[in-house]
Amino acid sequence: MSVNSFGRLFRFTTWGESHGPALGAVVDGCPPGLPISESALQPFLDARRPGQSKFTTQRQEPDQVRILSGVFEGRTTGTSISLMIENVDQRSKDYSEVAKAYRPGHADYAYDAKYGFRDYRGGGRSSARETAARVAAGGVARLVIPEVTILAYVVEIGGDAIDRANFDPAEIDRNPFFCPDPLAARRWAEQVDAVRKAGSSVGAVVECIATGVPAGWGAPLYGKLDADLAAGMMGINAVKGVEIGDGFAAARLSGEQNADPMRPGPQGPTFDANHAGGIAGGISTGQPIVVRVAFKPTSSILTPQPTITRPDENGRSHATELFTKGRHDPCVGIRGAPVVEAMMALVLADHKLLQRGQCGG
Amino acid sequence: MSVNSFGRLFRFTTWGESHGPALGAVVDGCPPGLPISESALQPFLDARRPGQSKFTTQRQEPDQVRILSGVFEGRTTGTSISLMIENVDQRSKDYSEVAKAYRPGHADYAYDAKYGFRDYRGGGRSSARETAARVAAGGVARLVIPEVTILAYVVEIGGDAIDRANFDPAEIDRNPFFCPDPLAARRWAEQVDAVRKAGSSVGAVVECIATGVPAGWGAPLYGKLDADLAAGMMGINAVKGVEIGDGFAAARLSGEQNADPMRPGPQGPTFDANHAGGIAGGISTGQPIVVRVAFKPTSSILTPQPTITRPDENGRSHATELFTKGRHDPCVGIRGAPVVEAMMALVLADHKLLQRGQCGG
Amino acid sequence: MSVNSFGRLFRFTTWGESHGPALGAVVDGCPPGLPISESALQPFLDARRPGQSKFTTQRQEPDQVRILSGVFEGRTTGTSISLMIENVDQRSKDYSEVAKAYRPGHADYAYDAKYGFRDYRGGGRSSARETAARVAAGGVARLVIPEVTILAYVVEIGGDAIDRANFDPAEIDRNPFFCPDPLAARRWAEQVDAVRKAGSSVGAVVECIATGVPAGWGAPLYGKLDADLAAGMMGINAVKGVEIGDGFAAARLSGEQNADPMRPGPQGPTFDANHAGGIAGGISTGQPIVVRVAFKPTSSILTPQPTITRPDENGRSHATELFTKGRHDPCVGIRGAPVVEAMMALVLADHKLLQRGQCGG
Amino acid sequence: MSVNSFGRLFRFTTWGESHGPALGAVVDGCPPGLPISESALQPFLDARRPGQSKFTTQRQEPDQVRILSGVFEGRTTGTSISLMIENVDQRSKDYSEVAKAYRPGHADYAYDAKYGFRDYRGGGRSSARETAARVAAGGVARLVIPEVTILAYVVEIGGDAIDRANFDPAEIDRNPFFCPDPLAARRWAEQVDAVRKAGSSVGAVVECIATGVPAGWGAPLYGKLDADLAAGMMGINAVKGVEIGDGFAAARLSGEQNADPMRPGPQGPTFDANHAGGIAGGISTGQPIVVRVAFKPTSSILTPQPTITRPDENGRSHATELFTKGRHDPCVGIRGAPVVEAMMALVLADHKLLQRGQCGG
C-alpha cells in the first residue's frame, strides 16, 4: 500500500528528509537491458538543483546521484534500482522556534496532528528537497520511453503570463525561470527579485507537454492516464491545481467549441485541435499530452504571521507569531518545472509497461 | 494493480457497461458492524439518476441498487460487499454508424487504439453510467465517516457563475442544477434549455466541501489526501481540471495573501482563512476540505463533426462526419455533483482507515 | 490493498457467502480480444460442483456462471469481467446452535474475534463455496495461457498414496476422486465411504503440474512464482501445507542428489531431473511446474467436540459441545483439485502478463 | 506492483546485489513514535551474519545497518525508513566461468531467460545476501508487535531431526545451528562438518513459533495470515516447502484426530491441541502461530555438474561442467532461521496494522 511509492508496473519509492544524511528512491519494475549511468541521470538533478541563481534558495547542494543497485555493466538488470543523493548543506541552526510553534501554510501542524510529533529541521519529510528523489527516478523513467519528448516550462508567475506568440522552446534553458518567452523572463526577473528582497513570495503556473506518446496508453477506469497525472502533479509540494488540455477553460466552452474533429492522416488520424490535451476516456489519443499545474506562493515569508505553539503539558496551545528565517525559494513554482517533467515521465513509463503487459504492445 | 479499483484500505472495484445487463461495485475493506441497507444507499443513486428533469438525459433507469454480499442482519460483516444495479433502458437502436466511425471528443478512438476493438453501444465501459457504481460505493463509504458532512454543488455553468452572496445550502436540492444560488438556478434553466434545444452542450464547475474531517488524515508523500482527491475527481467522466482550496487562483497570490494564520481555539486551532482548502503537506488540517472540479461540455452534440472511420481491411481510415443522435445530458457536469460527493466520501473513508491503521486513531 | 483480491496484472476480486443470494468474481486485467463464453467457463465449475457423487457434500448447486460485463460479441474487451453464480440450495435450517457456539476447527471463533460478529449460516464468507468464484476466474485465466496445460489430481487420501507406477492421466476424470491411479481410486472409494458413514472425515494431498510454461515467468524477489503459488494455494480452504518440486523431501537430500543437471537440447536446455519443480530463484525454468498441497480433514464431523459459547452479556463464554449436522464433504481435499488447478492458472496468467509488461515478452 | 516489496500497511522494499556497493530496505508504513536505533536492529543482523562458525560461508561481512531516514530523536516518524548495509567483502575473483555457463540448481539460467542477461557476480540479486535487508526490516517490524515473541530454530538437518523431548529454548543460541536439542546439535556438528569437508551440502527444516498473537489478525480471503506467511517463507532463498501447524501430517489425520477442542478460560478460550498452528480461516485464534519451512541443500557444491553455456553468437548452448568454487554455506537452512523469524515479524506487523485499520483494534 506503500504511501511513499507511486506507479504500478514502473514503481518508485522515496525516502529521506531535508536534514537527514541522504535521500533517495528505489525504482522497481524498470525493464532490463537499458543503458544507464549516473552521469546520464545527473542533468535532470542539476536542472532542479537549488542555489543556481538568486531566484532560488541559496542552499548549496551538489545533488550528486549515486546508483547503488540494479545496474550491471552499464545496463539495467530488471531488478530494483536504488538511487541515493547525499545532503551536504544541512546548515546547523537554531530550530527551537519552529520546534515549538507551527509555521502557517506549512505542513507543521498537520504532521503533528497526524504523527504526534515531527522532524522539524527544514520541514523534515515535507520539505521540497524530496523532489530530488523523484527527479532522479524520473531520469530512469525517461529511459523507458525514448519515443517521448517531455518539456515543462513556467507560463505564469504572480499572475503575469507569457505571451504565446513569443513562445520559443530554445529559450527555456536560457533563463533561470524555465520561461519560453524572453520578454516575460525579463519581467519576471524584476518581479521575483523584488519579491525576494521584500521577503515575500509568489505563485506560478507550470505547463508540461509530452509529444510522441502513441494512442492507447492509459488504463480505464481507475488508472486513467489523466487521473494518474493529476495524482502525480497534485502530490508535488505547493501544488494546488491540475488541469488537462483546456482544463477549467473547457468548462466555459460549448460542445462545438470544445470538439477536436479528426481527419484521416498518413500515420493515424490528425486532429483539428487539442482541447482534450491528448487524452480521451483516460487513454492517450496520439496528440500531445498537455498538463498545467498551479503552484501556490512559497509559505515561507519574512512577514510575521499569527500562529500557535505546540500544546504545552496541559495540552493547551498559545498564540504566538512566526516568520521564516531560513533559506527558501521566493517562487517555488520555478524549480517545480523539472519536477513536473519528472512526474510526467514517471506516469508515462508506467503506462507504457501497463499497455504492453495488458494489451501486448 | 487492478485498474478498475480505487482506494487503499477502503477499496472498491467497478464493472459494467452502458448496455450490458448490469453494472456494479465490489467494496472491500469496509469495517464490520456498520448498519446498512439498500434503502439507505438508494437516495445517493436517486440524486445521480438520469431522466429526472429536462436538463438531463432522458434515459429512464430506476438505478435500484442491490446488496449481494458482505451484509448480515443489517450490518456490514467486514467482508467484500457486492453492489449491483441492473440496466433496464438499454434502448435497442442502430449502432452501425458509431460502430464504424469514431465520435470526436469521445473515447471511441482511444479505446480502439488501446484494445483493438470496443463495445460501441452507448460508449460501453467509457459511458458515464459507470458512475452509478461509484455512487453506490460512495454510499457505503459515508457509513465509515459519520463525523463528516459532504456537500457538492454546481458553481458555474457555461461560464455563468453563482453569486457567493446568495449561497444557500438549502437551495441545492430545490432545483435541478444542484445550485446553491436561486438566482443563478433560474438563469441556468434558461441557458441549459436553450443549449438542449439547439442540440449543443455546455461545461460546468462543481465545488465540494467536506466539513468535520479531523486534522491528520492523508498519507504523505504518495498517498496525499489532495493527490488522492485529484486522482478520484480527474477520473470522473468529462473532468478536465481539479483544484484544492484557492487552486489556480493561489498561483496569483503573494505569500502574505495566501497565508492561513492560526489562533488558539477552544477545540484545536482556528484559522483566519482557508486558502489551503483544508490540506497542508497532503494532510488534513481540520478545516473544511474544498475541491473544485471542471467538467467539459458533453461531447455528444447534434452538429455534425468531421471524423474518421475505423480502419478498413487495408488498414485505412476514411473521412466522414458524425453527430450524436442518442439521449444525452446537455451539461454532464450537473449530474457530476453527486458523483463528486461520492468520490469525496470514498477518498475520506479510505484515509480514515489508513490513519487508524498506521497511527492508531 | 483489497484483501479479497489476488494477482497483480491479472487480478480478481471475489465476493459472496455460503447462504447469500449469489457469489462472484470480478476479473481485472484480462487482455482484450480473447474468445470467451459462459459455456466455455462452465466445465471448470462443473468439475468443482458439489453433489456429483456420494463422496462429496449433497448440497445441490447448479453453479451456473453468468458473465455480466467485460465481454462484447464473444470476446473479452480488456475491461473488468464480472462473473456471478447464484446460490440456489441454501437449505433453510436451524442455525441457532452454530450462532451461539463456535465449531472447533472452523473459522467461527476467529471471525468473531476479528469482526465482532459473523454470518454463521453455513460458515458465511469462510465457506468453501467461495472457491466456485475463483474457479470461474481461473477459467478466464486459462484463456490467457493457451500454451500451458494444467493438471491437478489427488495423490493421497488419509495417508493412502497412489502408486506412481500406475499413474494414468486419462484415469483422473474417470473416478470421483481425481485419482490418476485406478487401484488407489478403488481403495479410496471404500475408505471414504466408511469415513462418510462414520460421520468422520479425512485429509488429502493434491498435486498439480503445469507444462508448457516457458522459462522466465516469475518476479523476484517478492513476486516469486513459487511464493505466489504458495500464497494462492495456502489461501484455499482447509490447506495447511504447500511444497514446490521435491519440497520437504528436498530438505533430506544432499546437494548432489538434489541437482538438476542441464544438457543442451534442440529447443532450449533439457534437465536430467526436476527436483526444483520448474522454478529457480522464483523464476520458471521451462520445466513442468510441480506443486503439492496438503488438505486437512474436513472439520465438520458428527462426533461431538468440546467447545465454548459466544460470550454472554457478561462477556463470559461457557463450555458446551457441538457437532456438525449439515451437509459436508467427508474429504474436502477431493474437490480441492479443481480449485488448485484454478489457482495455478490464475498465478501463471498473472506472471505471463507481468513478464510481457516488464521484459517485453 | 513493486515485485521487490512485501506487505500491505507495513510494507518494505529491498534492493541490492551480492557484489554491489550495498544493499538495503525501505520500510513504509511503520507507525510513528516507536523508539528505534541502529544498535537495536544490529543483533538481528548479527544472528544472520556469515562467517561466525565453520558451518557457514566464510565471507566476512560486518553487516552494519545504517538508518538513513524516517527516524528523529530516536523515534520513528511515520515516514519511510531507509536501511542500508554496505558490502565490504566482495572478493575480487574470476567470474568468467559463471558468466559463461549456468550453475545447475541456481537461478542463473532462469535470470538469463527472464532478463536477457544477469549480474553473475556471486549470484547478483538472487544471492541470499539479500536476506540481510529483510532481516533489518524485520527488526523494525518487531517494534510494532512488542506483544509477540518469535522464536525460530532448526528442527532437522539432512534428515536428522531433533528429539522434541530434549527441546530447550535456551539451547538455541548456544550452538551454531539454532538447535533447541543439545544432542542433535552435537550430531549436526559432525554431520555438517563432514558435508563441508566433502564439498557437499545438505538441507534443513526450520520451525518458527510466534506466541502472544491475539485472536483476530489475518484478512480473509486473499490476505489470509497463513497465505501471507506462505508467500513470505516460500520467497526466502532455497525454500521449497511451507506448512502451518500439522501441515502435511494433517492430511493423514481424521477429523477427530485433527480437532482442536476449545474450553472456556479465564482470558479467552483454551485449546486442547494446536493442530491448526494458531490459524483458522486465515485468522489467528490466539494460539501460538506455528510454521515449518523446508530448505533444500545449497546448490553450490564441489562435485562438477553437467550444464550448458550461455548461447553463443549463433544462439546455441554447449555442454560443459561446472562446480562452485566460491565461499558458501554447506547448509543454507541454518542461517535461514533468523530470516524465517524476520519474515514472521514482518507478516505479523502488517496484519496488526491491518486489523487496527479495518476493525479498529
Automatic annotation (TrEMBL), chains A, B, C, D:
Matches recorded under SUPFAM superfamilies: Chorismate synthase, AroC
Pfam families: Chorismate_synt
Pathway(s) where this gene product acts: Metabolic intermediate biosynthesis; chorismate biosynthesis; chorismate from D-erythrose 4-phosphate and phosphoenolpyruvate: step 7/7
Keywords, alphabetical: Amino-acid biosynthesis, Aromatic amino acid biosynthesis, FAD, Flavoprotein, FMN, Lyase, NADP
Binding-site positions, FMN: 125-127, 237-238, 281, 296-300, 327
Broad class of enzyme this protein falls into: lyase
Note on how the cofactor is bound: Reduced FMN (FMNH(2)).
Necessary cofactors: FMNH2
Gene Ontology molecular functions: chorismate synthase activity
Similarity section: Belongs to the chorismate synthase family.
Name of the molecule in the record: Chorismate synthase
Organism: Novosphingobium rhizovicinum
Organism ancestry: Bacteria, Pseudomonadati, Pseudomonadota, Alphaproteobacteria, Sphingomonadales
